[in-house]
Amino acid sequence: MRISRIDVYHIDIPYAKVFRIATAEYPSQPFVIVRIATDDGLEGWGEACPAHEFTGETGGTVFSIMLEKMGRRLIGKDPSDVEALVVKGLNDIAGAPSAKAALDVALHDLLGKALGVPLYRLLGGLVRRSFPVTGGATLASLDETLDKVKRDIERGIEVLKIKVGEDPEKDAEKIRRVREVVGDKPIIRVDANQGWVKPRRAIKAIRLMERYGIELVEQPILAWDLDGLAEIRRSVDTPIMVDESVHTPIDVVRVAEKRAADIVNIKLMKTGGIRIALRVAAVAEAMGLDAYMGSMGETMIGRAANLHLALSLDVIKYGDIVAITREWGLVEDVATGLREELIDGVLQVVAPSEPGLGVRIKSEVLNKYLVAHRVIK
Questions:
Q1: Contacts of 80 (CB under 8 A, 6+ apart)
Q2: β-strands 187-191, 340-343: how paired?
Q3: Which segments within the chain are labelled E, that is strand?
Q4: DSSP 3-state of 369
Q5: Which of 16, 58, 162, 332 is the most buried (most CB within 10 A)?
Q6: Does the pLDDT value for residue 319 go beyond 80?
Q7: Could you say which of 100, 113, 161, 163 is catalytic?
Q8: 26 forms bridges with which residues in the sheet?
Q9: Per-residue pLDDT averaged across 83-107, rounded?
């Protein structure tokens, strides 16, 4: 079995509502979708979901580096040699983590299909059979936020992630109102995306919000300020999670040495795919930190990869496993296959049973939002 062809699709899909966080906003999301085909007729799918403020990439830069540097290195190679092809084979290319993730995920998908097993079987099997869906809201008006979380609760979603990172009093009032609307039971997490900038401002905001029962606070201040994060962690009762601060295993070590966080957010688009994500998770566990399976707004291709990792690693205690139909998400998805169930009244995404990622590509959607398509042989 050898890789004979790689299709690279640059697409751009609008959001139903502008996706807004403290550091950026997206009316649409660029993706680079890759299809790796072998000489015996198998294929694997992966995606890059670049975000310039996280990975330093755009759809155009990912598409270019895939064509100019990455793709041709895989032609003629055995796709089961994932470590050699992605980690060792692309090691001389600095950055470009979501581009690497696209190839990494596609190779894992292909290998699962070749062996006839779901991807989680290749990652150690199941430690859980489902993962709760995360709802919540991006930075939006108070009324929009409250309407959104009401609908989430009605669907059986009991984990809410609310974007904050503006004025501490305004943020705290938003969380107060959300708690008032949803009641005591749902979990509320808040994500500032570095928006409070300085420790004093973050401490004020978190202390104001703690009275409303928040589970964790994600990336309250600038990613590089580990001393500031440590100060915040010492000053509040709520666990602190880092996202933008951690891309690689050595980043986890630095965070742990500074005692800057309790939880590490793992995103395949930051790590460069599953191979390095496994290392990040292992280092987090060794350093006494919990892990969180993060999301970058991927299509179902990337979300399936996130789910398989979350289902197979015990150190992942939390996650953004978003609903299959996202009210404020992409207007259309390029794949189907994941399945939700109400389990004990809670909406959850369940383990796929199909080989590989367990998703099927919708070619009509891929073509509808196509920016460019190239073939590497």
A1: 1, 111, 114
A2: unpaired
A3: 3-20, 25-38, 43-48, 130-137, 159-163, 187-191, 214-218, 240-242, 263-266, 290-293, 316-319, 321-322, 335-336, 340-343, 346-350, 360-361, 370-376
A4: coil
A5: 162
A6: yes
A7: 163
A8: 19
A9: 96
Residues 6+ apart with CB under 8 A from 376: 5, 6, 7, 8, 67, 71, 72, 75
Taking only the tens place, the pLDDT of each residue in 138-190 is: 888 999 999 999 999 999 999 999 999 999 999 999 999 999 999 999 999 99
Q: Which of 129-138, 281-290, 323-332 has the lowest mean pLDDT?
A: 323-332
Looking up tokens 């990975």 gives: 55
77: annotated active-site residue: no
CA 83 to each of CA 39, 86, 109, 278, 338: distance values in angstroms, whole numbers, following the listed order: 20, 6, 14, 12, 27
Cα separation, 105 vs 93, whole angstroms: 18
**Structural contact between residues 46 and 274, judged by C-beta atoms closer than 8 angstroms:** no
Q: Which long-range contacts (CB under 8 A, 24 or more apart) does 344-349 make?
A: 345/156, 346/132, 346/156, 346/157, 346/158, 347/132, 347/133, 347/155, 347/156, 347/157, 347/158, 347/323, 348/130, 348/131, 348/132, 348/133, 349/130, 349/131, 349/133, 349/307, 349/321, 349/324
Range name among 2-6, 16-20, 109-113, 373-377 with the lowest pLDDT average? 16-20
SS (H, E, C) 120-177: HHHCCCCCCCEEEEEEEECCCCHHHHHHHHHHHHHCCCCEEEEECCCCHHHHHHHHHH
| Residue in 113, 148, 267, 270 annotated catalytic | 267
Residues 320, 294 contacting (CB under 8 angstroms): yes
**Active site annotation includes 163:** yes
Please give the DSSP secondary-structure letter assigned to residue 39: T
Distance CA 267, CA 122 (A): 19
For residue 267, give both structure tokens. 């995103």
Number of neighbouring beta carbons within 10 Å of residue 271: 25
